[in-house]
Write a structure and sequence with these properties.
CATH architecture: Alpha-Beta Barrel
Distance between the termini: 28 Å
Helix content: 40-55%
Radius of gyration: 18 Å
Order of helices and strands: EEEHEHEHEHEHEHEHHEHH
Number of domains: 1
Shape: globular
Structural class: alpha/beta
CATH class: Alpha Beta
Largest sheet: 8 strands, parallel
CATH topology: TIM Barrel
CATH superfamily: NADP-dependent oxidoreductase domain
């Protein structure tokens, strides 16, 4: 299976989403803006942000400064639980749109389930509103487990099925049951922290696979996720690592490699 940098998956409403992107948690100020610019120059077309990251303005500035046509860039942002509730979520959406300087958000997510079902449900109705009127192209959730997903789906007819569930995803945290539930319900899995925030890059099993392919441990972890058809958003503010993380489309992991990496879940 050969994937190219701008390879896309198709969401359940027909929208195309790049399979590899840049995560921007912690990437604020001038450094965050520059990281997004480097990523766009390198060919990334998915940029992931959130209102709670405090960098939507920098992301928007980089998108405009990049010279890449807006229609080629897929922007995700999210609403934090403190802004849950129908009207509050609509206001948060407009604030994000203003900060980003965009007419349309490609994907808008509930960032966490929160602890108030009524407000969470009201927020989902707000997301359905911005989807229906075209201000968002797709809507979804983040950090949802199976119980949370069952709740959002139980409304039945008339309820928009989330297009994406964004969760931590790596061989050490494969979320197998949740991944399968999402697959069965046509919800695209998207993984953040694929590089374990650097904490497990020295693992012997990962290094063995990396050495066999002449690649870095980071590239192996990203490739593992891509071969599971999971949208993957490694984060970096360093140009050389942004470039390294994108150089994952000219090699494949074997079935034996994948099995070895899958076995890391037992050592979490």
């Amino acid at each position: 299976m050969k994937l190219e940098l701008q390879s896309c998956v198709t969401l359940n409403n027909g929208v195309k989403m790049p399979i590899l992107g840049l995560g921007t948690w912690g990437a604020t100020g001038r450094g965050g803006r520059q990281a997004v610019l480097w990523a766009l120059e390198a060919g990334y077309r998915l940029i992931d942000t959130a209102s709670s990251y405090g960098n939507e303005r920098e992301v928007g500035e980089a998108v405009r400064a990049s010279g890449v046509p807006r229609g080629e860039i897929f922007i995700t942002t999210k609403v934090w639980p403190r802004d849950f509730g129908y009207e509050r979520t609509l206001r948060a959406f407009e604030e994000s749109r203003k900060e980003l300087g965009l007419e349309q958000i490609d994907l808008y997510l509930l960032h966490w389930p929160g602890d108030d079902r009524r407000r969470r449900d009201d927020s989902w109705r707000a997301l359905e509103t911005v989807l229906a009127d075209g201000r968002a192209r797709a809507i979804g959730i983040s950090n949802y487990g199976i119980a949370d997903l069952e709740e959002i789906l139980e409304e039945g007819d008339g309820r928009v099925v989330p297009a994406v569930n964004q969760v931590p995803f790596s061989p050490f945290e494969p979320q197998t049951a949740t991944h399968e539930f999402c697959r069965e319900n046509n919800i695209r899995f998207e993984g953040y922290s694929p590089l374990t925030r650097g904490s497990r890059l020295g693992d012997a099993a990962i290094r063995k696979v990396a050495e066999a392919h002449g690649r870095t441990p980071a590239q192996v972890l990203i490739r593992w996720a891509l071969q599971k058809e999971v949208v993957t958003i490694p984060k970096s503010v360093h140009k050389e690592r942004i470039l390294e993380n994108a150089a994952v489309f000219d090699f494949s992991l074997s079935a034996e490699d994948m099995e070895a990496l899958d076995g890391l879940a037992a050592r979490r």
